[in-house]
Amino acid sequence: MEENRKVSMNQELRCSRYTTFLTFFMVPFPVTYLVFATLIFDLDSKGIISNVLSPLFYLASFFWIITGVGLKNLKKWSWYTLLIAQFFTVYLDALNLVQHSNSEFKVWAFAFTVLVQCYVIASISNELRVPFLFPKIRWWESGIAGMPHLKVTLNHLSGSEGRTEGRVLDMSRKGCFVKTHHDYHPFEKVTLNFEDVSQKIDIPGIVVWNAKSTVTHPKGIGIKFGTIDRKKKKVLRVIVRRLLKQKDPSNAKKVSI
């Protein structure tokens, strides 16, 4: 059983094609960075050699490589290694700007690199936020029962538990965080049935996070959605908008699936 679950994990927990595309630049970072820095900062041969001999270059490369590997398998720790890699890269860019750049637009070149860094962080955050690591749950949602959150029924596709109920506290196009007191197995397959919307919908998913009760979030599970057809995506978009409007009316129009 445990071996089958590990096989299921390897098959199900993969990042999106877009994030996979980003990792193609992360893993070979020593090469991609030198090409990028040479073009942006107009480095000469001396500047390139200085980068190759810099310990900071290899430190940044190490964190980018393990981040790329971790993101391919949606590892939680890859978010933190990404932040470290970003920090070292900004520092490396600043040194190239001050010491080695021959560009006539140094400030604009550095600003462009910062924008690229911010774009990468935003893209990866969108991939990992829900259900993997950063569900947006307000402090009062952890302890007050009976709040008007979206009710959901979970059908267990493995085991003998049958059906359990929970409440969705946050949702994205990738998955959702469900408040529930039931214990789930890692990578357990479930089907989510949203019952209190005008149009019922069943969505397949897999449990990727068992969250214990803490100050920042209640006991619950993170569920990664499976393959969804276009019709279900339209209904899901309405559900997400409804949930966001309930949590914060200003976010109701910011949903894209």
Structure report:
With 257 residues, this protein is of the alpha+beta class. The protein folds into 2 domains: 2-133, no CATH class; 139-251, Beta Barrel (Thrombin, subunit H), CATH 2.40.10.220. The chain contains 8 helices and 6 strands, in the order αααααααββββββα. The longest helix is centred in the middle third of the chain and has 28 residues, at 106-133. The radius of gyration is 22 Å and the shape is elongated. It starts with a helix and ends in a 10-residue tail after the last helix.
What kind of sheet is the major sheet? 6 strands, antiparallel, barrel
Secondary-structure-based class equals alpha+beta
Strand content: 15-25%
Indicate the radius of gyration in whole angstroms. 22 Å
What order do the helices and strands follow? HHHHHHHEEEEEEH
The proportion of residues forming helix, as a percent range, comes to: 40-55%
Features of this protein?
17% strand, alpha+beta, 8 helices, 6-stranded antiparallel β-barrel, 257 residues, disordered N terminus, disordered C terminus, Thrombin, subunit H
Brief rundown of the structure:
By secondary structure, the protein is of the alpha+beta class.
List the helices and strands and how they pair.
Blueprint: H1 2-12, H2 17-26, H3 29-41, H4 45-52, H5 55-72, H6 77-100, H7 106-133, E1 150-156, E2 163-171, E3 175-179, E4 189-194, E5 201-211, E6 220-225, H8 230-247
Antiparallel strand pairs: 1-2, 1-4, 2-3, 3-6, 4-5, 5-6
